[in-house]
Q: What sequence folds into this?
């Protein structure tokens, strides 16, 4: 298993998409800093009485959303590229245990996604603090890092969840286009449908959708999302695990059964 | 040693391999021939555990490929040279394989040198020609110094130097006692490389024979200024003689020595005595019926 992990790590590191995605994350953080700077200019341009009318959505959460998107795509590309080129056969001649290959891919993708997600959120938070300073802008939490860390960790965990979901969908569909389409369906189309379901089911179903889980896990709720906030942190974690475990199991079974 | 036993592989309603049995023995190069769609690549994929057989089995050294812990150290394979992700360099491509099978890094570097890719070891594979990709694929196959090699059309896209290099490489590896299974559609090249042939058509075995039996001497071409006298003498001695278009005689049933002695006894001058074997191509065409596999 160590060999498989090391090999998949080397592969992911030398995949061109990885460099692109990490570059995109860098750009995202820079963009967030730019946004903070722009918010500060707006804020300072307003007369003091009207300043609390200005609201800017939470920059770390915005960064996290973009990071989730990028890393979900990376999760897809970590596997779909091998199917597109036929290299998946090379992979399975080098490492014939398919279960081990899937586990190694998942392990590597999860760690990279979690770390990158956390780095993006923390960098955005730090840049925001530096630029905003002690100005009070609505939507920008001025709380200490230690108080915000649970949310940041939950957000990073959800990045890993999306990346693994992408990976599993790529294994299941063997195509980047199909996997990304499925991902978009679960992530964006499903919430819209659920939102139109009569109450209280919209909230109930909404609370278990992947996009709603990080907030519930951190116990901060989902003030701006369509999802409900009915789950305890532990339940949210369980649902998060299920969003990975079920596609993973399906991917593992298909991988073992199908011809490579 | 590769053992294919009663192997059948279906894809939906297509029977790609149909009850195929043969052994590939060590110490010689075994050529794997058959028309397009005959099932060669499918057989190789089953041997490598990539495709699941519908029935029967394929073993390497008595074991299933997918049970091997470090398969590259036992079996080297080249199925499709194009199956490389273009963003990687040869160094990166071989490095992850080596890491997966606990093969040292020196081996990666020396293989890259051996296949002649040292100059482009750090260039992206995307810009490589087919021949360069074949070389990379061969480096991967040889990476673990395996005792068994399976190569699916490795000379495709290689330049004459490369073709010759592969021929000598494979013959050398077989001489060291390794098992080499090689598929190709280039008959003349196969004739020079292989010692033994397995020929299949429509997924079934057609022939499993030593090369020399397929290309054994067929007749002797004889030319003489007194062809008619010679023909009479040869016929009288028990040979079967037929006139050729170019004025020579095709003689069967007598070998060059007998023909020479006979001509001397009758004082008939000889201009040419050439034993002729069937080319592999001709024999192959005859065996496979000349057409495509399906
Ligand atoms: N994955 C697959 N799905 C469906 N049919 C397949 C698949 N792979 C091979 N076949 C079919 O199986 C048959 C054997 O194909 P195979 O590629 O093994 O032949 P081959 O001897 O390697 O041919 P070639 O000389 O052209 O490489 C063909 O009819 C092919 O269409
Ligand atoms: Mg083939």
A:
């Amino acid at each position: 298993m160590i060999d498989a992990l090391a090999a998949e790590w080397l592969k992911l590191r030398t995949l061109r998409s990885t460099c692109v995605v990490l570059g995109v994350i860098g750009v995202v953080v820079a963009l967030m800093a730019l946004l903070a700077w722009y918010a500060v200019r707006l804020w300072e341009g307003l007369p003091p009485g009207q300043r609390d009318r200005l609201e800017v959505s939470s920059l770390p959460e915005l960064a996290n959303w973009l990071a989730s998107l990028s890393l979900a795509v990376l999760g897809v590309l970590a596997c779909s590229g091998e199917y597109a080129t036929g290299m998946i056969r090379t992979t399975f001649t080098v490492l014939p245990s398919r279960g081990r290959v899937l586990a190694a891919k998942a392990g590597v993708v999860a760690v990279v996604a979690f770390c990158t997600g956390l780095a993006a959120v923390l960098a955005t938070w730090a840049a925001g603090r530096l630029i905003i300073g002690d100005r009070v802008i609505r939507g920008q939490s001025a709380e200490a890092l230690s108080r915000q860390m649970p949310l940041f960790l939950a957000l990073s965990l959800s990045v890993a969840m999306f990346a693994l979901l992408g990976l599993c969908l790529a294994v299941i569909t063997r195509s980047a286009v199909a996997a990304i389409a499925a991902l978009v369906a679960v992530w964006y189309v499903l919430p819209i449908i659920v939102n139109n379901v009569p109450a209280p089911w919209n909230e109930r179903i909404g609370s278990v959708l992947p996009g709603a889980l990080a907030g519930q896990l951190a116990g901060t709720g989902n003030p701006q999302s369509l999802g409900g906030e009915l789950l305890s942190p532990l339940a949210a974690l369980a649902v998060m695990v299920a969003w990975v475990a079920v596609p993973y199991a399906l991917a593992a079974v298909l991988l073992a059964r199908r011809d490579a | 040693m590769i053992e294919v036993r009663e192997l059948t592989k279906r894809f939906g309603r297509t029977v790609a391999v149909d009850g195929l049995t043969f052994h590939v023995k060590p110490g010689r190069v075994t050529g794997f021939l058959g028309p397009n769609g005959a099932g060669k690549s499918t057989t190789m994929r089953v041997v490598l555990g990539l495709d699941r057989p519908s029935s029967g089995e394929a073993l390497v050294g008595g074991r299933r490929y997918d049970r091997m812990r470090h398969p590259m150290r036992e079996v080297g394979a080249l199925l499709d040279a194009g199956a490389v992700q273009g963003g990687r360099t040869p160094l990166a491509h071989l490095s992850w394989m080596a890491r997966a099978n606990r093969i040292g890094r020196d081996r990666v570097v020396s293989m890259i040198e051996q296949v002649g890719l040292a100059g482009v070891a750090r260039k992206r594979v995307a810009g490589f020609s087919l021949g360069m990709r074949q070389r990379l694929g061969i480096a991967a196959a040889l990476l673990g110094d395996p005792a068994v090699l399976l190569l699916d059309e490795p000379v495709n896209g290689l330049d004459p130097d490369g073709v010759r290099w592969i021929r000598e490489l494979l013959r050398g590896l077989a001489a060291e006692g390794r098992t080499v299974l090689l598929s190709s559609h280039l008959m003349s090249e196969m004739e020079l490389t292989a010692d033994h042939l397995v020929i299949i058509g429509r997924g079934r075995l057609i022939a499993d024979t030593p090369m020399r039996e397929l290309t054994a001497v067929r007749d002797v071409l004889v030319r003489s200024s007194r062809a008619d006298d010679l023909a009479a003498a040869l016929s009288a001695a028990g040979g079967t003689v037929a006139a050729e278009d170019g004025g020579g005689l095709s003689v069967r049933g007598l070998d060059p020595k007998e023909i020479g002695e006979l001509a001397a006894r009758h004082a008939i001058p000889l201009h040419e005595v050439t034993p002729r074997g069937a080319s592999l191509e001709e024999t192959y065409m005859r065996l496979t019926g000349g057409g495509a596999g399906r």
